[in-house]
Amino acid sequence: MNRANSGKVLVVEPTSIVMDRLVGELLERGTRVSALPAPGRLPPYGAEVPRIDLPSYEAGDSDDSDPFGTIIFDLPRIDERSLFADGGGDPKNLSDLADEAYRFLDLTKRMITHQVFREKGSIWTLECDDFFEYYFTIPISPIFSSMRISCFRSLCKEFARFNLQFNNIVFQPGVESVPAAEYKAQLPNLKVFSLKFRLSSLERIAAAICDQIENASASMNGSVVHLGVSPNWNNY
């Protein structure tokens, strides 16, 4: 990895199958990976659990002198398709979304604190291209993803002087993440992306994410990286 992304990798609250594959890919490449598990969840296989008390996660709290050069937030935990299935009339739905947003901002603040005094590092979020909700019954989080992307665009301007990078990766769902019957039925409609369109495997997606993270440079700070065939650029 380059200078900005040197050191260990920390994955934050990994719950998705994409993150499981990403952790596996990083480990195969010889990268040391740690995980801050989501509440009630186990870390991905092979990932270490840092000896850090999350509520007091500040610079110097860790007894490990090797900093996390790269920090990756998993896909949003909240599924807006389910949250607003009743049309969004329940105020509690918006309250749940706001609570999750504040939680993300608090976690981001703590991750920045870890890196800022070391004056190097990169923080990433993983986002799924919600355009595919029109074709498949999959979890989506367009509001939450847009919030995280906007947040990072602002942060990159403030913390570039500390050599910190903030980027988002938006990728099309892996073929294993889509119901097989829906995928087969929708293939003719997916020509809007390209002729003979096919979703990529999770292994290929994980490898592409690793490549982007390993080769990121200061010139792309604040960028939204799109992965997939003919991505929908207008979403973000």
Outline the fold blueprint.
Blueprint: E1 8-12, H1 17-28, E2 33-36, E3 68-73, H2 80-83, H3 91-116, E4 121-128, H4 142-159, E5 164-171, H5 180-186, H6 202-214, E6 224-227
Parallel strand pairs: 1-2, 1-3, 3-4, 4-5, 5-6
Helix pairs in contact: 1-6, 3-4
Q: How many H/I helical runs?
A: 6
Q: Helix-strand pattern, N to C?
A: EHEEHHEHEHHE
CATH-assigned homologous superfamily? NAD(P)-binding Rossmann-like Domain
CATH architecture: 3-Layer(aba) Sandwich
CATH topology value:
Rossmann fold
Strands, total number = 6
Strand order of the largest sheet: 2-1-3-4-5-6
Low-confidence stretches: 1-5, 53-64
Helix and strand content put the structural class at alpha/beta
- Average pLDDT works out at 83
DSSP strand (E) fraction?
5-15%
The CATH top-level class label: Alpha Beta
CA gyration radius, whole angstroms:
18 Å
Overall description:
The protein is an alpha/beta fold and about 240 residues long. It has one domain: 3-Layer(aba) Sandwich (Rossmann fold), CATH 3.40.50. It contains six helices and six strands. The protein has a six-stranded parallel sheet, with helices on both faces. Strand 1, helix 1 and strand 2 form a beta-alpha-beta unit. Helix 1 crosses helix 6 and helix 3 (about 90-115) runs parallel beside helix 4 (about 140-160). The longest helix has 26 residues, at about 90-115.
